[in-house]
Write a structure and sequence with these properties.
Elements: E1 6-11, H1 19-32, E2 37-42, H2 44-47, H3 54-70, E3 78-82, H4 88-97, H5 102-106, H6 109-117, H7 124-139, E4 144-147, H8 152-168, E5 177-180, H9 214-222, H10 240-253, H11 257-263, H12 269-295, H13 298-327
Helix pairs in contact: 3-12, 4-7, 4-13, 7-8, 9-12, 10-11, 10-12
The structure holds tryptophan.
Tryptophan binds next to strand 1, helix 7 and strand 4.
Amino acid sequence: MEERKTLYSAIQPTNNLTIGNLIGAIKNWTNLQNGYDCFFAIANMHAITVRQVPAELRQKTLNMLALYLACGIDPEKCVMYVQSHVPAHAELCWVLNTLTYVGEMERMTQFKDKSARHAENINMGLMDYPVLMAADILLYQTDVVPVGLDQRQHVEIARDIAQRFNNAFSPTFKIPEALYMKVGAKINDLLDPSKKMSKSAENPNGSVFLSDDRDTVIRKFRRAVTDSGLEIKYDPENKAGVSNLLSIYSAFTGKTISEAEADFAGRGYGEFKLAVGETVADRLAPIQKEQARLLAEKDYLDGVLRSGAERASKAANRTLSKVYKKIGFFQL
Ligand code: TRP
């Protein structure tokens, strides 16, 4: 049997996920877990590069785990773990720091953005963020890294650092490839359909969060902007709002766009928006229920994380000890 490729991805437990994340990232991961050896980390070490409330960070870590399990990520197939449970991440990061230049970190787009947004807290961790992410990926001899396009520069720098280490010492790290996730259906903001739906939009009424209750979901869809005219027709150029709602409906029902149009032929915008809202709410309800059920099963969640940390540590330490040998750390 052909050896399976290794896939690595991580998510910060601070993210307030939207239905766009569900349709894009999470659904993708549940498909990918069948074809790859997968590692999925909850990146709490990355999270503290901006100030967190400790009790909230702890709770969000478990919320995130429960959400992924509720969405169908299978801990038998994937290694799911918390980044800080595997000390090799911090250890490799330190070594890789010595192969990374201050200038190249200062030029990273996300560092510049976050420095502007958190001008009072431009800490070393924020600047080192890409090196820690390179350590995450390289520790597992990763073949593919499924990420959004916003992470392109980070995967590029991980490849550069790996190459640099391999050239300076000898081949040690596999050079990873990014797998850019085409958001199944591109989901836009309900109030400004020219923009992508975002977890950090100015107006939270334009984004539907996976944690929104039924009434909130329906209220947000009822207030979604539509367009002048009366027809429920997919035409992103001229009818951005209606087209976005049709995309969401199609993503949540598995129907094609033309089937979606047919479902609403001759009906009014009000009825249409309500129907899309109900469809989304119906789909979120079982996920939220399962997430809540899992959150009450503390021992089960602990077990998943304990087993994840063990399996991740084993793989990570294999790479780390090679690295330590090559760079001349005296071994006991
Ligand atoms: N920086 C990523 C994000 O914000 C999260 C992340 C941390 C990650 N380490 C990673 C993603 C390793 C892929 C691989 O989305």
